[in-house]
Design brief:
The protein is α/β, with parallel strands linked by helices. It has one domain: NAD(P)-binding Rossmann-like Domain (Rossmann fold), CATH 3.40.50.720. About 45% of the residues lie in helices and about 15% in strands. A 7-stranded parallel β-sheet has the order 3-2-1-4-5-6-7, sandwiched between helices. α1 packs parallel to α2 (about 40-50), α3 runs parallel beside α4 and α4 (about 105-130) runs parallel beside α5 (about 150-170). About 45% of the residues are buried.
């Protein structure tokens, strides 16, 4: 029960990595706050966690809607007086090169993947600073380490996430707050469904969300004084 009495907020918790992180955290004793745009989907995750005696709540939260984030965070603080862990995970990917990516596609990647992370951090950090403790885990991607073709909008937003996480780490490491970026290699999650069949052999070579969740747990337990900026996991 490594996270006993901790309050952990997970974005994009309805499927994939976010879902497995939520399940893993609950198993370790955390009160897990599930958030995603689709409340019905996270309610299903909530039921699954509750079946295993996990402590969990769900909130519909669009990470591009700053007012909604503000209200959600305020509700959590009012109820529990703290947020110990923030896991930024929600995101999108739509492959495309410069001649394929529309302005709308590019803006969507930046608004969700980059600004979405910033929005959640901006609303949560003041409460962590008040407590002089906390852990922020930003799930990014190995694309930042080795960008592939037709990843223009995705890579740009993810490089932005990396810069945001690194700068935040430097800002907060001496204030009791740990900020760790997790860089998973390609992971078999629904984010790939729009362009990859479920039975595609390439999926067999991908990481499993459960494997990534173990590294996220490690990041969430990292003391600020360890000064660890990133963790990398590859298939």
């Amino acid at each position: 029960m490594q996270l006993k009495d901790k309050v952990a907020l997970v974005t994009g918790a309805s499927s994939g990595i976010g879902k497995e992180v939520a399940k893993r955290f609950a198993k370790e004793g955390a009160l897990v706050i599930l958030t995603a745009r689709n409340l019905d989907k996270i309610k299903e995750v909530q039921k699954e966690i509750e079946k295993n005696n996990g402590n969990v709540e769900s909130y519909s939260m669009d990470i591009t809607n700053r007012n909604q984030i503000n209200e959600t965070i305020k509700n959590i603080i009012k109820k529990y007086n703290k947020i110990d862990i923030l896991v930024n995970n929600a995101g999108i990917i739509k492959p495309g090169s410069i001649d394929e990516v529309s302005y709308e596609d590019f803006d969507a990647h930046v608004n969700i993947n980059l600004l979405g992370y910033f929005n959640c951090i901006k609303e949560t950090v003041p409460y962590m600073l008040k407590e002089k403790s906390g852990n922020i885990v930003n799930i990014i991607t190995s694309t930042v380490k080795n960008t592939k073709a037709r990843r223009l909008a995705y890579a740009a937003s993810k490089y932005g996430q990396a810069g945001l996480s690194n700068a935040l780490h430097e800002d907060l490491k001496d204030k009791g707050i740990s900020v760790v970026a997790v860089y998973p290699g390609k992971t078999d999650t629904p984010i790939h469904d729009p362009y990859m069949d479920q039975d595609d052999p390439k999926r067999e070579k991908m990481l499993k969300p459960e494997e990534v969740a173990e590294v996220v747990l490690e990041a969430a337990l990292m003391p600020a004084e360890n000064d660890v900026k990133e963790l990398i996991i590859n298939p």
